[in-house]
Amino acid sequence: MARKAIHAAGGIVVRGGKRPLLAVVQRSKDERWVLPRGKLKRDENPLAGARREAVEETGHRVKVHEFLGAIAYTARGQPKLMQFWRMQAAVRPSRDVSKDIAAVEWLPLAAAVRRLSCALERLFLLNVGRRMLRRRRRGTGHKARAAKTKAARRRPRRRSSKKRTHRSLHRKPRSAAHKPAAHHATAPARRSMLARMLGRLRR
Q: CATH number of the domain at 6-147, please?
């Protein structure tokens, strides 16, 4: 008869901005370095359990983001499934870590991978960590560009007086063809002109 699987959950907990650091914790019972994770309580939702374990083992409040994957293996003849989410930690700790944790370290991805004691966890963190950080940088860059565009749209446009002066200096003078045409002679003037012409003919 197959033994019931153990369900656990945790997080790849990240702190910092341009140079993010990842949390790894040392367990008191065996001094092994692991990712922040632990067994789920009875009927506990995996995501809620992952957040709880991350807060208890790092001492930082966390914001949970996307699901990253799971690790499955056998522990003492019993199958175990651990699910992980990406989490963003608050800048400052908000509580003491659990008594089950001897130490917490915040390391760059490569150093965090080397620090982990379990080969399966090392491989998992290496694979998802690279993808996670690339996505994170892309998201940060997109937000920065969107903020710049939004600021540029809000900024009122100002016309430079220099441009107007420059245009006026280079404006071409009007040619004779563009001068307004002379007004036509009035009716009395035309009659006077015809009278003079008739007088000359009579002579």
A: 3.90.79.10
